[in-house]
């Protein structure tokens, strides 16, 4: 059976979906030794980025920043909390909200995971000439344009 990636297609959405599914699978495999999934890493890395200023974001902010569904983020946050990588507490300014904070273990995990994901990205971008190639820059800009025109 032919590899679907080798067949010409104008179904851009299908190609993006296929690439995303394969990418996630590769990231899952790379992060498995660290006890993380690609989705958990996305939440943890997003929390790490949002927390750099000392801000403990609301769980909803974390979902919006990561681009993941709020219910999915809630489940991921519970799993990461159980693993000791983050904590949840009532938000000091909003009694209806939950503030999420990254722990030392979470920072260590995201640092180790970032190395793995970055190495995988370097490897995959060789097909376009590498991270600094013009084609990679164009791809990034095209993906950002597509993301700006999507709804949540």
Automatic annotation (TrEMBL):
Keywords: DNA-binding, Transcription, Transcription regulation. PROSITE patterns: HTH_MARR_2. Residues 9-148 form the HTH marR-type domain. Signal peptide: none annotated. Transmembrane segments: none annotated. PANTHER family: TRANSCRIPTIONAL REGULATOR SLYA, TRANSCRIPTIONAL REGULATOR, MARR FAMILY. This is MarR family transcriptional regulator.
């Amino acid at each position: 059976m032919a590899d679907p990636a080798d067949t010409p297609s104008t179904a851009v959405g299908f190609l993006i979906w296929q690439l995303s599914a394969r990418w996630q699978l590769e990231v899952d495999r790379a992060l498995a030794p660290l006890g993380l999934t690609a989705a958990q890493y996305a939440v943890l890395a997003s929390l790490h980025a949002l927390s750099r200023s000392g801000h403990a974001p609301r769980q909803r902010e974390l979902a919006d920043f990561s681009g993941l569904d709020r219910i999915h983020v809630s489940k991921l946050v519970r799993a990461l909390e159980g693993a000791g990588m983050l904590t949840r507490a009532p938000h000091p300014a909003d009694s209806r909200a939950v503030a999420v904070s990254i722990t030392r273990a979470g920072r260590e995990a995201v640092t180790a995971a970032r190395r793995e994901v970055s190495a995988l990205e370097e490897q995959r971008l060789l097909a376009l000439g590498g991270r600094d190639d013009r084609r990679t820059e164009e791809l990034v800009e095209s993906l950002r344009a597509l993301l700006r025109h999507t709804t949540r």
